[in-house]
Amino acid sequence: MKSNITRIITILAIIIVNIGCDQITKDMARKQIKEYERIEVIGDNLILTKVENSGAFLGMGSSLSPIMRKILLLILPAAVMIGLLVYLLKTKSLSLIAIVGLSFIVGGGLGNLYDRVLYGSVTDMVHIDLGGVFRTGIFNAADVSVMVGTGLILLEQFLTRKKATPKVETE
């Protein structure tokens, strides 16, 4: 990145765009899709179904006590998101791929955290089912942001390792 200001603006813009896309799609789902309504967008392959998830990934943790749920689903994720944001803003040696990837993770994490604080649950609405090939649980745009960010971080690690691997010469 050319300057620190450009870097910070890029980080904040990516985070804000991720949160904005997430919240717009969730708001549309809350207003236009009834709970558990099934809307086939592409046959049985892409389905919109609104679900309020009071747990974490695939509803895990929804049966925890209120105190444990608050710790594990609000306080801990908030601390991690703040830590990641501080790391992103302070670490000048990050590659562009790492900056974008971590910004996506923070944006997605904050999008879901916002829902938990404001509504007590996270609105999920997309389900993909490609038969026996690929099937998801019900997810939202914030989940996609976190997955894309994670994919970028993994890609960067793969590219970095590939460059660092010494070539063995054969005679």
What does this protein look like?
The protein has 171 residues and is mainly α. The protein has one domain. Helix content is 60%, strand content 11%. The protein contains four helices and three strands. A three-stranded antiparallel sheet has the order 1-2-3. Helix 1 (4-32) runs parallel beside helix 3. The chain is globular.
Unreliable stretches (pLDDT < 50, length at least 5) are: none
Sheet with most strands: strand arrangement: 1-2-3
**DSSP, total strands:** 3
Radius of gyration: 19 Å
Question: Helicity, in percent?
Answer: 55-70%
Largest pleated sheet:
3 strands, antiparallel
Strand content: 5-15%
Question: What's the mean pLDDT score?
Answer: 91
Query: What is the number of helical segments per DSSP (H or I, 4+ residues)?
Result: 4
Termini Cα gap: 42 Å
Run of helices and strands? HEEHHEH
Structural class: mainly alpha
Overall body shape: globular
Task: Please sum up the structure shown.
With 171 residues, the protein is mainly alpha-helical. It has helices spanning 4-32, 66-90, 96-119, 141-164; strands spanning 39-42, 46-53, 122-128. The chain is globular and about 60 Å long.
Task: Please write out the topology.
Elements: H1 4-32, E1 39-42, E2 46-53, H2 66-90, H3 96-119, E3 122-128, H4 141-164
Antiparallel strand pairs: 1-2, 2-3
Helix pairs in contact: 1-3, 2-3, 3-4
